[in-house]
Amino acid sequence: MKPVPVSLPALAALALAPALTGADAGLSDEQTRFFERKIRPVLVEKCYDCHSASAKKVKGGLVLDTKDGTLNGGDNGPAVVPGNIDDSLLIAAIRYGNKDMEMPPKGKLPDSVIADFETWVKMGAPDPRTGPTVADANTASAQWQKKEIDVAAGRSFWAFQPPKSSPTPTVKNTSWPKCDIDRFILARMEEKGLQPVADAGRLELLRRVTFDLTGLPPTPDLIQVYMKDTSPDAFARVVDNLLASERFGEYWGRHWLDVARYGESAGRDANVLYPFAWRYRDWVIDALNRDLPYNEFVKQQVAGDLLPYKDAADQSRKIVATGFLAIGSKPQNERNPRQFALELADEQIDTLSQSVLGITIACARCHDHKFDPIPQKDYYALAGIFLSSETLYGTNRGLQNQNASDLIDLGHESGMPAGFEGISPAQRAQLANRLEEAKGSQAESFRTAQAARRAGKEADNLRLLALRQQIGTISGELNRYDESGNARILAMGVYDRSRPVDSPVFNRGEATQPGAVVPRGFVQVLFQETPPPVRHGSGRLELAEWLASRDNPQTARVMVNRMWRWLFGRGIVPTVDNFGAMGEKPSHPELLDHLALRFMDHGWSIKKMVREIVLSRTYQLATLHAPQNFAADPENTLCWRMTSRTVDAESLRDAMLLVSGKLDLYPQEGSVVARANEGREGLIRLFTTLQEPRYDRSVYLPVVRDLVPEALSLFDFANPSLVTGDRESTNVPAQSLYLLNNKQVQELSDAFARRVYASAKDQPGRIQFAFWTALGRAPTAEEVRAAYTFFSEYTQDAAKAKSKGADLTPYAWSAFCQSLMASAEFRHLD
What we know:
Blueprint: H1 29-47, H2 67-72, H3 89-95, H4 111-122, H5 134-137, H6 151-154, H7 180-191, H8 202-214, H9 220-228, H10 234-244, H11 246-259, H12 278-289, H13 294-303, H14 312-321, H15 323-326, H16 337-357, H17 376-387, E1 389-392, E2 408-409, H18 425-454, H19 461-478, E3 490-491, E4 493-496, E5 503-506, E6 514-518, H20 540-547, H21 555-568, H22 589-601, H23 606-614, H24 627-632, E7 645-646, H25 649-660, H26 672-676, H27 679-690, H28 710-713, H29 733-741, H30 743-759, H31 763-775, H32 781-802, H33 809-821, H34 824-827, E8 828-829
Helix pairs in contact: 1-4, 8-10, 11-12, 13-14, 13-20, 16-17, 18-19, 21-22, 21-23, 25-30, 30-31, 30-33, 32-33
């Protein structure tokens, strides 16, 4: 169960600077983070000398240190046209496509950086710079920052204090609360002179909780059983059954995959495939269904390969968990190994710090954190831990992949599926022969090229490149099978290197400017006293144990806030991935700490915490409007009602599959990405497969970065390259057009119509069945009349069509069913 040794892959490159001015309220956290980490640092380092208010002479009239300056441009026109790469002069300049306009003039930016700028423009050029120019902003600092960060003072910030137990508040309306959660919520409302709205109706509540816990609507059978159960424990029984369902892990696993920035390719410029990312996805789903304690859940993802194990199967599961550190986006085409290594470590630090700790440690890469008490040396203390770890992600060396990596062979004793079929010994031998032939051709071509160069002739470099690509592809294919042709059990993951290293502090984050070396270690501000030194190996196991400890002030607090966000649509701390100074403060700090302590006291059980929240009266409130409450608290931060929410992309697609009767709850093991493999032929197979209809749950759809299925991307799917704890929720025309015109939606409408038509012998019964199945309720009298009118008009048209040999009846029911699936009510939770 050892990885095949591979050349050093990991160490970063670009300057990563934090926000220097406040974030624009109109931007999402994802957009702001992208600008601050990928765009602003490059502008600061490469452009501001000539194009900022602080420049001695502004060239071309162009200033790039403000949003307006960037959009308005200079003498040649707008530098950036949001959403339009071709008309953005800044993109043309950094591409070096025009010799008269090449920026920066001292050398072209790396391809990965250019790709970041292209992505930024495509996403609308989000820019949070609404305040002063960089010259003024550089003077800004947090209260604990002077010439040097005062870590001791920084520990006084609320997020860096351990959760505190507070007495349960007393309330005036003692009959309303069901539990302590309700008392904390009601106490804040009563302080403001507010009262909660009425409770949700039973059917509304059933639909809400079924979607919230499984991502699916309640079936008519479930509705019928629940409505007949009038006992006080009826709702609790439903909740327990939903938590015990495998559907819980599939849906809540997808929540975590958002946070873990799950993707099945590298993204960026090369976007090579990660054929075995799916194994981590399945581990997450299984862990949540097993209710693996969250502290263990975190520990295994950071250092599962270093933990004790019972047997080969247990060891393999824990190794697969470390795929969390391996699945991130990477600049696979980066030619500088040190730079690639720094980039990889930076991505891991950024993901881990946001997902588990809710802070942006990666903003301290180029200099001390501008807002949080995190010195630059703390960043590189963590970097040493990850630079001492070998990340295996499984890509083949090729023209667009300078940083190939093997995978971990778990062995058949792991009991895990391969995810793809084996081949015969003869087929494997044929692959091996092809590899030897390609290597022979490469050696011969190399000799021919050398001879040509000695003779002053042009060498056939294209052939050499093609052979290199071919060898990489065949080698990758061959390594998927053992000597007998059996499929190897392969996984992405992390191992400790045999020689741990301490990292230097790289000046401005530049790989070419190493400074003083700092010992591997942890972020000081999260410890009440000086952190202990790393004593064993890379330090990854010690890091994991501290992350999962009660002594860590953030891990439990961040996760219960995520759970609250996934159930209410808004976190107690709205900026769920950033609890730092640039994040928002908690609306109910005592409740947040109460939940964090309860979470730890009850064994870090996610299911127990979810159960406690959904059984609260706060969760069970209606979405009613209350003018007095709205005037005092329009954002509903005090939770005086349940906020109406749009179901996410996966739930919408899965709900359509369920009501149509087409949902397949037992998908094929693995992923189409693994079965496609790499290389040109593999990509062709993958693109073809992606166009085919799928009927399994959305969590099992392939997530190839930059090729996310339209059914997900149109409906605010999380960016798979970024930590996303808080998805956006939009309502745009393209979504409605998709629901009306997409071929698969129409196919599902036809299938739903067949179910409806077969459900009863008469029109009234069919209409009733359609509403109960799609919306979880009976139609109103007005809706029944509208349906009759609709079918009456269709009948008239059908009679005319029938005289010409056509039958419009199936189309009528299909259109009726599609209108239900495209309705606002189908897409919303009350």
